[in-house]
Amino acid sequence: MRMEIKEEAVESTASSSVARSRSSSAWIRGIPIYVMILPGFLYFVIFRYIPMGGLVIAFQEYDPFLGFLNSPWTGLDNFHRLLTDPDLGMLLRNSLILSGLNLILFFPAPILLAIMLSEVSRSWFRKSVQTIIYMPHFLSWVIVVNITVVLFATQDGGINNLLESLGFQRIEFLTDSHYFRALYVLQNIWKESGWSAIIFLAALAGVNPMLYEAAVVDGASRWRQVWHITLPALKSTVIILFILRLGQVLDLGFEHILLIQNPVNLGVADVFDTYVYRNGVLQGNFSYSTTVGVFKSVIGLVLIMLANRLTKVFGQEGVY
């Protein structure tokens, strides 16, 4: 009996040592992967998670000379100031309209672009087009807005010169508030559609070519192939990106909006980011600026949770 117990103990010890050896060897083999992950991990920890501690100043009258610990607490006074601000309705309206235009016009643009590129049979032509449409992503918004000014300026802009040569009157694209939203969305589409199409092209790369071959044998047209093979392959990717996009519904790009904003179109161009910069940062009111940021984040979180819940209700795979 004792011999059997000793044998079982020896076997247990041997199996545990083998398991530890395998675990350590697996960890050693994974070191290159951990090294690759480390920069991204450090980025999110240093620039995303640690700064979240600064949200505490939304509940303070923050003074840089007193710091986080000694600044006086104000409770929810900053949130009350925001919710009773007479400009809140205008800011919400402008932000939601611009976000809605982005969702309706800009969000489908990379999908359509990816589908069109996937239909190109000549690889050299497809790669050339991809390279060209990726390039605007690497331009700063300063350059993009300057290009817009050169094209749409009232006095010497290329578009207005063309209109005048054709017998039409010059149009004030940059100073008329009616054209602001169109210019904003078109700039987004031109700059980011090519780059945003990468993820959809990656999803299409995983589609089995035999599905298209079988569809051709069955007599399906190109449109039928796109409808029944390409679009279903993109469905899960589109749903996930759409849900994540809702989390940024009030984040419209501070630099972009600020550069094309002017006193004439301020009524339709003023959004939370530019409002915070003008009424918070420039005036040194950091607590109020943080309060607006918290407000935006809460709305984005609620929208993501609702959209993810609705996705699950309709039987689709959500973000979590």
TrEMBL record:
Query: Coiled coil located at which positions?
Result: none
Q: How does it sit in the membrane?
A: Multi-pass membrane protein
Parts of the chain that traverse the membrane: 31-50, 96-120, 132-153, 194-214, 286-307
Primary place of residence?
Answer: membrane
Swiss-Prot/TrEMBL keywords: Membrane, Transmembrane, Transmembrane helix, Transport
> What does the UniProt entry say about where the protein is found?
Cell membrane; Membrane
Q: Which PROSITE patterns match?
A: ABC_TM1
Domain (ABC transmembrane type-1) spans: 92-307
Note the superkingdom of the native organism: Bacteria
Similarity remark? Belongs to the binding-protein-dependent transport system permease family.
Which PANTHER family does the annotation name? POLYGALACTURONAN_RHAMNOGALACTURONAN TRANSPORT SYSTEM PERMEASE PROTEIN YTEP (PTHR43496:SF1), PROTEIN LPLB (PTHR43496)
Protein name per the record: ABC transporter permease subunit
Lineage here is:
Bacteria, Bacillati, Bacillota, Bacilli, Bacillales
